[in-house]
């Protein structure tokens, strides 16, 4: 009679009327392998199969479906189920099978287990075999044992005894077992199924099958659910009723699943403790932390971890975390809230002691909401800082709200509130404004409040979020004003700098602060005043000496906060680059032990960048590029190259350096990474625009480069910046204008540059401007400008600018026929440009030097020793061309033509132009005669 097991009572061995086999989504291949054994058994040969898989993977369901299909195929089906609670009862599973195989109406047999006790083991085993053999006389037989790993030892011996005796009988034995379950000490699995069973390992279901179980259409949600459960059918079924609209499957769990899993591992020593520790630690679950959090000896912990890994409850890795997020969430849901909070606080402390990243420690602190942890505030603030600058402002806000739950002094509360306002400003500006007002209301100690507000301003990169910081600092300054100017001035100074650097237009009027200067007595306040005086001198472009003096006064203390401010640092380094002593002092002040306020700025970045800028200004391009490149890699690691003003400045300086070194491809590649659209209005990006203009001119895109340089100038003017040494854009724009044939524009730019540089008075900008003037002028004026440029630049450390001026002068001298002078000038230019590493400039100077040396070689077709240039000019004059026409044709000045003709007259022994034709003809005849 066709029978199948009752799905309502799967442990029962009773036969029931046949019903359709249930559908098992995603298990068609495995079911096909099992039913593929039916023909073998129907032909009279025994077969066996083992279904293995982790908890809940559908072994029992697959066995029941196979039994139903076997019943349809004419098999007698006998089913049994191993149980943890019955594993100590001898013969429990064998009794289930024997009862299921008893033929209706036959005389009752003694129970197998009783026979074992009464007549001995061999008789009982033989009786079990006869029961199976007699059943095969009625037709093929399926013996299905679910959870064989939980069967009693006697039943396992019965199956082992049976297996070798039914080889020629139509018997199919199908066992299910949890993968990795510790084997029974007496009977191995292969003893019960033979040496060549069909072994089927059930893995997680695919996306389509998971979607069918969940009642979802295939898509991203179904995929996420499958990932959260590993495709485990039982977990998918538990997830389904919890999958409400908008829910994240990775955050869902079932307390019932947590209870079941905890119960199932109770039989393994220390496994429940390790399991719960793994649920608390999550991705932080390392061996040491698991053992310490579970309170288990290391050897015992290792044994428990080994067991849980083999059972596929923990991942098999050096971070043995729970295999699926749904399992972890289920275990956490099964824990009382207080237990969870205490364990998360313990985990946070263990992670902090182990040196874990602040973000990981903070993740546990967020879950320890009912536990007071004073040391947690600093960790939460640091983690929030990192989260804001990595674009996760809402996570940062969660961390900071958790920090506010601790007992805080008024100063620390204000600091946390301001930091929270900064985070909330990214996604909820009105809430941020309320946080600022709340922070201002908590102001207690004036010095602490000023320090916190200053730190807030230094931590901002700039842009729109800086407006909130400036507003908050202004409100705090107003609250501190009653303490006198010394108390409030440093904060006002930093607020002014932050606003000047973040504005899209000119900075606020400096004279608004002047009224408060007189009463300042505190040294820090006086240094702040000097800093603003220096900045005012830089913006006005009036006096380099005055600006340097004020910067020096600002550097007299050990407090370098002012110089850490992006806007101030950028301008200070531009001014002090030509002052080696002040550069050394600046680097010492910036080289602080603490991490920079701005999370994007690596430790030690500011002194490194300042030193690189000074090296570049001196012409040491190779060493400067090493500083910039090493620093740029660190900015890349922090994601600050394109967003942080200091990172942008470093990138721009490196591009400029590479242009001078001739590394055009590297410069182009770096500029391709920068966002010029998003940078509109940011002050330090002006330097980036200048660097791109220089690169474009150097690589032949002169028109585009010219437009970049003009745009750079317009932006500087819009910022109210008249300091000519920040970026010498006019010098390069004038060169581009000459290359484009726009001589009037070139002359205008050169004139503006010389006026601005003369007013400023520093050697490097002035020498650069004089060099440009030498390019746009003619005759003696050009040479005088270049000679003055060289004299000026020799008083500065600017070797690259000096090499440029020497190259231009040598080129001019050669063009004017002063070859001997040109050779000496160009020799110096080649030597100096090679020392700087400026390969493009060195190549140009070397080419001009070779041309000058050739020009000194006498022409071979005359006997009077005329040089090639003298001979060419003399021939043109003999043909009737005027000096002006010759100068125009050869791109020379009239003065140069006159000098060459005078030399030719002297060598030919004639008084003037009238005798020139005859003298040249005689000279040519004599040469031909030779």
TrEMBL record:
Residues 859-924 form the HTH luxR-type domain. Pfam families: AAA_16 (PF13191), GerE (PF00196), TPR_12 (PF13424). Residues 1-30 are annotated as: Disordered. Keywords: ATP-binding, Nucleotide-binding, TPR repeat. This is LuxR family transcriptional regulator. TPR repeats lie at residues 803-836. InterPro entries: AAA_16, P-loop_NTPase, Sig_transdc_resp-reg_C-effctor, TPR-like_helical_dom_sf, TPR_rpt, Tscrpt_reg_LuxR_C, WH-like_DNA-bd_sf.
């Amino acid at each position: 009679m066709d029978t199948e097991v009752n799905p309502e009572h799967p442990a029962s061995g009773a036969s029931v009327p046949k019903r359709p086999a249930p559908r098992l989504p995603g298990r068609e291949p495995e079911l096909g392998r099992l039913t593929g054994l039916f023909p073998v058994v129907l032909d009279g040969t025994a077969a066996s199969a083992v279904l293995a898989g982790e908890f809940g993977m559908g072994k029992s369901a697959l066995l029941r479906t196979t039994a139903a299909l076997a019943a349809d195929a004419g098999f007698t089906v006998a089913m049994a189920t191993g149980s943890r609670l019955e594993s100590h009862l001898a013969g429990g599973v064998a009794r289930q099978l024997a009862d299921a195989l008893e033929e209706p109406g036959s005389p009752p047999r003694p129970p197998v287990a009783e026979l074992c006790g009464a007549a001995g083991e061999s008789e009982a085993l033989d009786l079990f075999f006869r029961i199976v053999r007699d059943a095969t006389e009625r037709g093929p037989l399926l013996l299905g044992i679910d959870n064989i790993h939980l069967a009693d030892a006697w039943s396992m011996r019965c199956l082992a005894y049976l297996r070798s005796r039914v080889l020629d009988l139509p018997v199919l034995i199908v066992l299910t077992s949890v993968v990795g379950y510790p084997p029974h000490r007496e009977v191995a699995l292969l003893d019960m199924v033979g040496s060549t069973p069909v072994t089927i390992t059930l893995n997680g279901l695919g996306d389509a099958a998971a979607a069918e179980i969940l009642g979802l259409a295939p898509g991203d949600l179904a995929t996420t659910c499958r990932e959260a459960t590993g495709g485990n059918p039982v977990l998918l079924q538990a997830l389904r009723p919890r999958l409400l609209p908008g829910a994240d499957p990775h955050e869902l769990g079932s307390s019932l699943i947590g209870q079941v899993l905890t119960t199932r591992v109770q039989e393994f020593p220390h496994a429940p403790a390790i399991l719960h520790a793994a649920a608390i630690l999550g991705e932080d679950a390392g061996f040491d932390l698991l053992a310490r959090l579970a309170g288990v000896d290391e050897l015992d912990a290792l044994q428990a971890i080994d067991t849980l890994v083999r059972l596929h409850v923990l991942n098999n890795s050096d971070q043995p975390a729970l295999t699926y997020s749904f399992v972890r969430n289920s275990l956490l849901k099964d824990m009382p809230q207080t237990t969870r909070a205490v364990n998360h606080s313990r985990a946070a402390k263990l992670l902090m002691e182990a040196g874990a990243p602040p973000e990981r420690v903070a993740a546990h602190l967020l879950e320890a909401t009912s536990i007071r942890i004073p040391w947690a505030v600093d960790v939460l603030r640091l983690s929030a800082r990192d989260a804001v600058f990595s674009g996760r402002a809402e996570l940062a806000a969660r961390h900071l709200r958790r920090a506010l739950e601790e007992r805080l002094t008024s100063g620390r509360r204000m600091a946390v509130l301001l930091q929270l306002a900064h985070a909330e400003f990214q996604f909820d500006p009105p809430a941020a404004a309320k946080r600022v007002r709340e922070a201002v209301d908590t102001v207690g100690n004036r010095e602490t409040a000023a320090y916190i507000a200053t730190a807030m301003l230094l931590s901002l990169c700039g842009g729109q979020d800086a407006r909130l910081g400036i507003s908050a600092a202004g409100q705090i300054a107003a609250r501190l004003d009653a303490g006198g100017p010394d108390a409030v001035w440093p904060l006002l100074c930093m607020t002014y700098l932050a606003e000047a650097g973040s504005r899209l237009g000119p900075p606020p009027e400096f004279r608004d602060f002047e009224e408060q200067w007189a009463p300042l007595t505190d040294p820090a306040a006086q240094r702040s005043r000097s800093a603003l005086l220096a900045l005012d001198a830089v913006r006005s472009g009036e006096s380099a000496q005055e600006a340097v003096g004020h910067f020096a006064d600002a550097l007299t203390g050990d407090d370098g906060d002012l110089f850490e401010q992006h806007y101030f640092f950028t301008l200070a380094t531009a001014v002090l680059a030509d002052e080696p002593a002040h550069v050394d002092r600046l680097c010492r002040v910036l080289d602080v032990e603490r991490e920079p306020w701005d999370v994007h700025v690596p430790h030690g970045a500011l002194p490194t960048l300042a030193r690189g800028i000074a090296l570049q200004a001196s012409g040491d391009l190779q060493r400067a590029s090493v500083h910039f490149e090493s620093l740029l890699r660190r900015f890349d690691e922090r994601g600050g190259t394109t967003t942080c003003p200091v990172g942008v400045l470093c990138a721009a300086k490196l591009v400029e350096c590479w242009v001078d070194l001739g590394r055009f491809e590297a410069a182009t590649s770096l500029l391709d990474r920068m966002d010029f659209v998003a940078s509109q209005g940011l002050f330090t990006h002006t330097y980036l625009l200048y660097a791109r203009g220089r690169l474009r001119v150097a690589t032949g895109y002169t028109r585009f480069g010219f437009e970049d340089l003009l745009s750079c100038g317009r932006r500087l003017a819009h910022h109210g910046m008249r300091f000519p040494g920040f970026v010498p854009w006019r010098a390069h724009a004038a060169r581009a204008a000459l290359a484009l044939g726009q001589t009037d524009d070139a002359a205008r730019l050169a004139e503006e540059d010389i006026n601005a540089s003369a007013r400023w008075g520093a050697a490097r900008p002035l020498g650069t401007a004089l060099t440009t003037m030498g390019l746009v002028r003619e005759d003696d004026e050009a040479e005088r400008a270049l000679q003055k440029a060289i004299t000026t630049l020799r008083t500065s450390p600017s070797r690259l600018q000096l090499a440029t001026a020497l190259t231009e002068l040598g080129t001019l001298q050669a063009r004017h026929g002063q070859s001997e002078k040109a050779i000496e000038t160009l020799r110096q230019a080649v030597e100096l440009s090679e020392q700087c590493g400026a390969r493009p400039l060195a190549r140009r100077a070397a080419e001009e030097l070779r041309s000058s040396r050739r020009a000194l070689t006498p022409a071979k077709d005359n006997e009077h020793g005329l040089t090639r240039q003298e001979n060419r000019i003399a021939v043109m004059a003999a043909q009737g061309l005027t000096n002006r026409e010759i100068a125009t044709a050869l791109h020379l000045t009239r003065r140069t033509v006159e000098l060459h003709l005078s030399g030719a007259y002297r060598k030919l022994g004639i008084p003037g132009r009238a005798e020139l034709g005859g003298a040249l003809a005689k000279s040519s005849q004599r040469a031909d005669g030779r």
